[in-house]
Hints:
Layout: H1 3-19, H2 26-57, E1 62-66, E2 79-83, H3 84-112, H4 117-132, H5 134-139, E3 155-157, E4 160-163, H6 169-184
Antiparallel strand pairs: 1-2, 3-4
Helix pairs in contact: 1-4, 2-3, 2-4, 3-4
Amino acid sequence: MNAGIQNIVISLGAMQVARRIPFDDPEVLNYVRIGYVASQVIILGAYFFVSYKVRQKNDQTVLKYVDAQNPMSPDSGGLVTTTVRDYDLSETSKLLRAAYFGVAMMAFFHLYMKYTQPLFIQALMGLKNLYDAKPVAIHILGKPAEGDLKRPFKTPSMFGAAAGPQTDAASITEAEKKIGGKKED
């Protein structure tokens, strides 16, 4: 099943369960808060552990790819040369930023706007996203880096095939020629 569809199904299921939770009971609300905080501690701890494992392995294998075109960024679409270590650390850093952003949004929704249901839903979605994170699958779950886990990671799309960086030799050669042409000017 597509990851986008899984997220929607889990979100809708969590909303149905959240409707039946009596959030107006202070004891229940405290348990939900504890559950949310515990899930975020697990998520952040897992991402920091992945960073530690990546640094420990220190895989210096060179990784070359042509970055996917992003219409919002003028710098996208160029040749990227990095190491597996640096690539995994940057991907883990993106996951950490997303987790921090989620915590900030939940703090705003819960503390300022007094919403309670999102605490429950985001605790479940955060754990699901942790399980789906590719660096976690490789470095914690021990899955081999092949197929969907082959670096550079492809980004899942809700509309069909996954889009991502191009790793074929022709694309890399063409990007190298573009870089060489710019240096001559």
